[in-house]
Amino acid sequence: MASPSLTTQSFSSNIVGPDEPKLFHKEKEDENNQILQKNLLMVSELPSEKGWLSENIHLYQGFWYSTGVLNGLLILQQCFQAQPSDILLATYPKSGTTWLKALLFILTNRTCIDNSEKNPLMTTSPHELVSMLESYAAKNPMNPRPSNSLMHTHIPYTSLPESTKSSGCRIIYVYRDPKDVLVSCWHFVNKLKPNEIPQISLVEAFERFSRGVSPYGPYWDHVLGYWKASVEFPERVLLLRYEDMKRDPCFHIKRLAEFLGHPFTTEEEAGEGLVSKLVDFCSFEKLSNLEVNKKGSHSGFGFPVIENKIFFRQGQVGDSKNHLAREMIDHLDQITEEKFKEFHLINTFSSEEDEISVCPIDNVI
Ligand code: PAP
Question: How far does the centroid of ligand 1 lie from the alpha carbon of residue 194, in Å?
Fold first, then answer.
């Protein structure tokens, strides 16, 4: 018997098409521009550094943002209203966003897994189905709430709009080994860069990431913010580790379902049941091989066209050891150790014990 608690009915608002900007009237455009101008004035007074992808990144409330993202964040802080039934996926970039968007979408629309014609993930990128709040707000400043209750953000916990905390909405935070995050981010940024803009070297990316000057960085403060919130409000904030999910995805998707208040039935959990089907459908191998994710594109990150395939590279744990020199690995491990120790959070990402062959520093570009 299918779980009566979580069906397309209970989450039917999630099954809609991508969030398209509403009709653009001249009036609306003027209002949007006024908001943008006001925000840009404020942004121009913040400390800035050279961006990874954008020209500049700005330091706001202890974290670094591109101008476009910061505009979206300011709009959200001014007027975003979360609802108690909202589900907010939060991640530091390159920590498993695409995977969790797909998993959460299919988890909250379980019945469509058995009908590929009715499964939106077959034809639409997870990034279109689950809107990124700050990007959506920048496009729709007068109405910054996407139509779906399942949403995503890279914004650190301490800067989230107040209503995401007071409404009691559920927040799921996924974090990943910072070394793999850095390497994934470096690949991604260079793929996104137009040909005429010089690529960022891995040494430069490493140096900036280590200093915390990375998009939405410092990485460590990002993780610690959500970690503290999950300790304080375990019924509202759930932390998941990318590496744990890779090791035992079925176990963690069950945790997710319970956290959302819609656990699987015993039958759904058994053998080749629903849990295995959902996990299998969202695996790197399956998801990355869907036609839409191989050949499709969507708009995002301020780009009118972004190829869906650049969100799928390897999907492995520990690929950073194929790119980073031993010194770099040790340095990042040391920062993680120190930052996490302060909060009694164990550094589970240390490579100290690993018998790994790492790149000699001279070979790192
Ligand atoms: P985003 O934060 O910009 O949306 P995000 O999806 O978090 O990006 O990061 C992409 C990473 O997730 C890539 O990691 P890699 O560069 O180390 O390979 C990508 O391969 C990985 N990824 C995408 N889909 C999946 C999946 N279904 N399972 C596991 N990893 C995945």
Answer: 21
pLDDT tens, position by position, 214-255: 999 999 999 999 999 999 999 999 999 999 999 999 999 999
Characterize the bridge pairing of strands 303-307 and 63-66: unpaired
| Strands 297-300 and 303-307, sheet pairing | antiparallel
The residues near 73 (Cβ < 8 Å, ≥ 6 apart) are 60, 65, 134, 137, 155, 159
CA of 181 to the centre of ligand 1 (A): 9
29 domain residue, yes or no: no
Task: Give the residue among 216, 213, 189, 184 at the shortest CA–CA distance from 200.
Answer: 189
Atom of ligand 1 nearest to the CA of 132: 4
Could you read off the pLDDT of 12-47 as tens digits, one per residue? Answer: 333 333 444 445 567 777 777 788 888 888 898 999
- 195 lies in a domain? yes
Q: What is the CA radius of gyration of the chain?
A: 20
Model's pTM, two decimal places?
0.89
Pair of tokens at residue 34: 């006024």
Nearest CA to ligand 1 atom 10: 94
Asked if residue 352 is part of any domain, the answer here is yes
The CATH number assigned to the domain holding 351 equals 3.40.50.300
C-alpha dihedral (349, 223, 40, 193), degrees to nearest 10: 30
Q: How far apart are CA 339 and CA 238, in angstroms?
A: 21
- Residues at CB less than 6 angstroms from ligand 1: 91, 93-99, 180, 184, 187, 282-284, 287, 311-315, 319
Q: Is residue 21 part of a domain?
A: no
Could you list the residue range(s) of the whole structural domain that residue 356 is in? 54-363
- Count up the domains in the chain and report the number: 1
How far is residue 351's CA from residue 321's CA, in Å, rounded to a whole number?
A: 9
Distance of CA 148 to the CA centre of its chain: 17
Closest C-alpha residue for ligand 1 atom 11:
94
